[in-house]
Write a structure and sequence with these properties.
CATH class of the domain at 44-152 in chain B: Alpha Beta
Low-confidence stretches of chain B: none
Largest sheet of chain B: 6 strands, mixed
CATH architecture of the domain at 44-152 in chain B: 2-Layer Sandwich
Distance between the termini of chain B: 75 Å
Oligomer: heterodimer
Helix content of chain A: 25-40%
Radius of gyration of chain B: 26 Å
Number of strands of chain B: 10
Strand content of chain A: 15-25%
Mean pLDDT of chain A: 82
Structural class of chain B: alpha/beta
Mean pLDDT of chain B: 82
Number of strands of chain A: 9
Shape of chain A: elongated
Strand content of chain B: 15-25%
Order of helices and strands of chain A: HEEEEEHEEEHHE
Strand order of the largest sheet of chain A: 5-4-3-8-9
Largest sheet of chain A: 5 strands, mixed
Radius of gyration of chain A: 26 Å
Number of helices of chain B: 4
Structural class of chain A: alpha/beta
Order of helices and strands of chain B: HEEEEEHEEHEHEE
């Protein structure tokens, strides 16, 4: 008859695994990174002419070295930027002073009128990163709101809940039209 | 009734600790899965700016980080008090970025290379001049997907 194996004392096992657990808690970090994703334009080939953009299709946002804002040549406040960007990109009343629209055939949405407006963002080398990000954030907020409105209108869902192909259609209808100009050099300390 | 009143006080039975380790192991695996290893210690002070429209950074294995900020007090003797760039675990110059991007590219499988994102983790008091220089270098290096790190804030 085989001998009965004596029961192993496993109480120390939990101590060991506690130690391991504590070690992993120490060396790892949970905080997930959050932020704003953007795409940089590819470098321009040299001596290429700038594409002509009509004046009505462009909304100039400038930030100076004291973090003050200029919208199309007028002083502006950061609180107003989102609404200004929304009316500019949306142009709900088809005003002749706001951007023109181009009719595009987008899958899932059909014929959609897409704004040709571009927000031109220019900052100074002395602008703080904080202000720059606030501006990017407000512009992102404007685009996100417009996307949400369009997707609730067309698909009855929030933009975040759409399927990939639906989100792609919305992205085409409301593109992230932000162009960044070369920064000015007024506020740079040498 | 003597039959029912025991002669000696009852001993508490020993608890079975056998499954305790299983539970702890489960916790351990849980934490191992949801966390990432801390990669390198920072030499620069970074307080990220806040934004309301932030999204999560996806596919962490395809992200390379550029840290920008003022060197920590104990590093200031060596690196000065101006904003500097930290790539991996050393303070670097703007001109080192192209090489850094190439290195990050070659360390990843070919199929994943177009999806590499460069996260710019910058302190909120950094001047845009430095950030613009970084962006120009990234453009030249062909790393077009960028990500501005920011903390989540609620809209007022």
């Amino acid at each position: 008859m085989a001998r009965k194996t004596p029961g192993l004392n496993t109480s120390a096992m939990s101590d060991i695994s506690f130690l391991l657990l504590a070690f992993f808690l120490m060396v790892s970090n949970i905080n997930s990174d959050s932020g704003i994703a953007r795409r940089l334009p590819p470098p321009l080939p040299p001596n290429q002419d700038k594409p002509e953009v009509r004046e009505r299709n462009i909304f100039v946002v400038k930030i100076n070295s004291h973090d003050l804002l200029l919208f199309n040549g007028e002083y502006g406040r950061i609180e107003d930027l989102k609404d200004r960007a929304k009316t500019f990109l949306g142009n709900p009343q088809d005003l002749p002073t706001l951007p023109e629209k181009e009719e595009l055939d987008i899958p899932l949405l059909g014929k959609t009128r897409v704004s040709k407006g571009v927000i031109s963002l220019q900052n100074d080398r002395g602008t703080s990163y904080d202000m720059y990000l606030q501006v990017q954030n407000e512009l992102a907020a404007a685009i996100n709101e417009m996307r949400n409105e369009l997707s609730t209108d067309r698909f009855g869902k929030k933009y975040a809940d759409l399927s990939d192909s639906q989100a792609e259609a919305i992205d085409k209808a409301i593109p992230i039209a932000i162009s960044e100009a070369e920064p000015t050099k007024i506020g740079e300390k040498k | 009734m003597a039959r029912f009143t025991g002669k000696k006080a009852k001993e508490t039975p020993a608890l079975n600790m056998g499954s305790m380790s299983d539970i702890i192991f489960m916790l351990l695996f849980f934490f191992m899965v949801i966390t990432t290893m801390r990669e390198s210690s920072l030499y620069v002070k970074i307080i990220p700016p806040q934004g309301t429209e932030v999204s999560k950074l996806e596919k962490k294995s395809l992200v390379s980080y550029i840290n920008v900020g003022v060197p920590l007090p104990d590093q200031q003797k060596k690196f000065g008090t101006d904003s500097r760039i930290q790539l991996n675990d050393q303070i670097a110059e703007v001109s080192d970025i192209i090489q850094f991007v190439e290195l990050e590219k070659s360390s990843r499988p070919e199929a994943d290379r177009p999806f590499i994102t460069t996260a710019i983790k910058a302190d909120k008091d950094t001047k845009m001049g430095l950030i613009s220089d970084i962006k120009q270098e990234l453009r030249a290096a062909g790393a077009f997907k960028i990500f501005y790190n920011a903390r989540k804030a609620e809209r007022k």
